[in-house]
Structure to design on (352 residues):
């Protein structure tokens, strides 16, 4: 009798503990997002104010207010600030795309660059330049078509008869498509005249040197539409991690939600690639770093902000590492990503 009477009290105490844990996780997630936003503002300040040409904070504020300072206005408004802002929006897109791919496939190596999506977008962009003379934002449709073709090939190669998308086959198919996309880019560049070939090399590694208000605006519009949608899909796929049967029992629809998440992730990666080039390994690195900061809690917003921090910080290194030479930003992200990918592989072996 006493045990029966104590059960409501025990249930209430358990519920209180669960609520406290949930509140603690929410606070931790908020702190991670705020910290990443502060880190992003810091690296943007370094990119814009410091370097070979330094700008004081009062001069920067005056320039934003419309003042013309010889030398400083041109450097800030035509080079430093556009590159920093393009790095932010491109990093947000790549980071969010990587979070969606990883949530759908449940594999630490699942990202649009490893799976050939970014390479497909690059191949489509270079083909549009070489075959139809596309330039600027007109390249976006060609990049979307290229990434869509890449995703379709990978899906066709990885789909199982009974279990749908098979993770390992998806990765293997993605590696093959990435190699094919690289071959297409190389062949197209080889066929182009020298001036066009130099312009097209941005799609081999990625660079922020072509930053402009038009590119930033188009990518910003895409983020305004796709980032909230991606966040909703990312959250909707959380029950699917418990298994397909239980997810359906909880009211989730994992199959169409996964398809939509792959579509949104593909478009985000394609538009970012069309505006800044492939920027290797940004999507791959963003989610593991954000997850580690959140102590295992995966947040698409934290992944997106991490991607932005990586890209802007990499551009600082690319533009300031050598005294007289600006490296493509993708060279730095690739140099960071290669050992990180090996570390992820070794860590996966230990877990297995």
């Amino acid at each position: 009798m006493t045990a029966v009477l104590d059960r409501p009290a025990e249930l209430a105490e358990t519920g209180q503990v669960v609520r406290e844990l949930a509140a603690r996780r929410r606070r931790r997630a908020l702190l991670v997002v705020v910290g990443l936003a502060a880190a992003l503002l810091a690296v943007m300040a370094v990119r814009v104010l410091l370097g070979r040409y330094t700008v004081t904070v009062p001069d920067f504020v005056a320039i934003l207010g419309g003042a013309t300072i010889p030398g400083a206005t041109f450097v800030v408004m035509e080079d430093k600030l556009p590159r920093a802002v393009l790095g932010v929006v491109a990093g947000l897109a790549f980071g969010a795309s990587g979070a969606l791919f990883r949530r759908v496939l449940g594999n630490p190596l699942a990202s649009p660059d490893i799976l050939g999506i970014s390479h497909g977008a690059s191949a489509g962009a270079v083909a549009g330049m070489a075959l139809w003379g596309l330039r600027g934002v007109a390249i976006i449709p060609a990049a979307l078509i290229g990434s869509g073709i890449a995703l379709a090939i990978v899906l066709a190669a990885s789909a199982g008869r009974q279990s749908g998308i098979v993770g390992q086959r998806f990765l293997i198919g993605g590696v093959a498509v990435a190699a094919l996309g690289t071959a297409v880019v190389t062949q197209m560049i080889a066929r182009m005249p020298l001036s066009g070939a130099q312009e097209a090399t941005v799609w081999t590694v990625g660079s922020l040197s072509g930053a402009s208000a038009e590119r930033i605006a188009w990518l910003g519009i895409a983020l305004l539409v796709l980032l909230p949608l991606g966040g909703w899909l990312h959250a909707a796929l959380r029950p699917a991690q418990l298994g397909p049967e239980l997810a359906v029992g909880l009211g989730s629809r994992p199959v169409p939600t996964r398809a939509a998440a792959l579509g949104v992730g593909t478009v985000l990666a394609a538009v970012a690639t069309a505006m800044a080039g492939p920027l290797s390994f940004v999507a791959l690195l963003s989610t593991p770093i954000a997850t580690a900061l959140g102590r295992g809690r995966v947040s698409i917003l934290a992944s997106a902000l991490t991607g932005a921090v990586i890209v802007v910080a990499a551009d600082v290194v690319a533009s300031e590492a050598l005294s007289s030479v600006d490296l493509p930003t993708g060279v730095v992200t690739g140099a960071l990503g290669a050992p990180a990918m090996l570390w992820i592989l070794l860590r996966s072996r230990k877990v297995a």
About this structure: The first strand starts at residue 159 and ends at 160. The radius of gyration is 22 Å. Residues 1-5 have pLDDT under 50 and may be disordered.
